[in-house]
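Quick log. Single chain, no ligands specified.
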Amino acid sequence: MKKKVILFLSITLFVFFSFSLLGIYLLYEPDIILLGDEEVTLEVGGYYDDLGCTIDFLFDVDKYIETSGEYDVNHVGEYKIRYVANIPYLSNKVFIERIIKVIDIDAPTIKLSGGDVSLFVGDKYNEQGYISEDLVDGVITDKVKVTNNIDTTKAGEYEVTYNVKDSSGNETSVKRKVVVKERPTTTINKDKDGDSSVPTTKKGKGKSIAILMYHYFYDPSNGETGENSNWMSVKDFEAQMKYLSDNKYYFPTWGEVADFIDGKITLPAKSIVITIDDGQWSFFKYGLPILNKYNIKATSFIITSKAGGTKFKNNLFDNISYESHTHGMHTGGCSGGHGGLFRCINYDKGLADLKKSIDILGSNEAIAYPFGDVTNNVLKITKDAGFKVGVTTVNKKAQVGMDRYQLPRVRMSKGMSLNTFIKSI
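-> predicted structure:
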C-alpha cells in the first residue's frame, strides 16, 4: 500500500512538473530590453554605434539575440533594426525594434559666376551662370529657379534672385546685383571734310584699349624659375596689379569692349582689360590671390576639358569671369598658322565643342582662340556659338573699328619691368 502511494505521488509530481515546463515553453515570454533610445535621429554623414539589446531572464541568454535590418548614415531615410529573442527552449520568439532616422539639415549652396553686373541702358542682360551643389543630392544646378526684375530700358539697380531646394526641403537663396547705367554722353567729331569720325568724350580714352595677355606665374622664393617667357614672377605681377589699383583703372565688361570697338560708346581714359589664358594651376595658386587682393577684374580663359574646367567652380569671385579657351580644341591637328585644331575642324564638331565649353562655364561673352589662330571657319563657328568678342595673340592694342572677333592683345612677358609695363598700356 505504501509503495502504491509513493508511486502515485511520483507520477503526480512528474506530470505536474512536465505540464509546468510545457507551460513555460509555450507561454513564457522573456523580457527583451533595448539598450539606448527606441528612436534615434542622426544627421547624414554622422556616426552611430548600435548598442543592441539585452534579455531579462533567470540566466544570461543574450547570445540568443538575433539582429536584422541595416542602416546607412550616408543616405537620408528611415531605417528599422529588429532584435529577436530566439531562445531554443522557449516557444515564444519575442522581438523589439529600434527606428533610426537619418536626416539632411544642411542647405545647398549656390555659387555665382562673374559676380555683379554693370550694363548700359539698351544692353541685353546675359546670365553669367551659377552652380548649385548639395551634400546629399550632389549637383542640383538644374533645380535652381531664377527670377529678376531687370528693365534695361531704364537706369537703376536691379536684382536677380536664385533659389534652390534640395530633396529634404532645405532651401537657399542668393542675389546678384545688376546696375543699369545711362550711356556716356558722346560727341561726333567732324574731320576737315565734314565726315563723321569715331565718337569721343572729354574723358574718353580715344581709339584704343590694351587687352593684356598673361599665361603662367611662378614664385622665385619657392625655388621656381618659370619655364619660358610666358611665365611671370608673382612679384612682378603684383607690382603691375598694384599700379592699376593705385591709379584707379577702369575694367570694362566684354559687352562694353564690344561696343567700344564698334564705336558705340567711349570708355574712361584709364581703361584696361586683364586676361589670363589656359586656366593652369599657377593661375589659381598665384595669380588669383593677387587679383583678389587688389580687387582687379579679370578674365581667365579656361580649357574646359582640362583640370581648370572643374577647378574654377571652387574659385568663383565677383571680380573674376571665366570664359572659353574651347573645350578640347587647344591642341594641334591642322596645317598653317600655329597648327591648332580649331583652324580646320568640322563645323558641327567645332560648334559642339564650343557649346560644351559654354555649358560648363555658363558664359559666352568672350573667347580666346587656341594658339591665336583665326580662319573663316573659326570665325563662323565662334559667331554662331554666340560670343561677343574673340581675342588673338597678336601683340598690340585693340583699336576702335577693328573686327571685334579678332582683337589683338598686349603680351605680358617674364622679366618685364614696371616701367616697361606702364609704357605698354
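DSSP finds eight helices and 25 strands in the chain.
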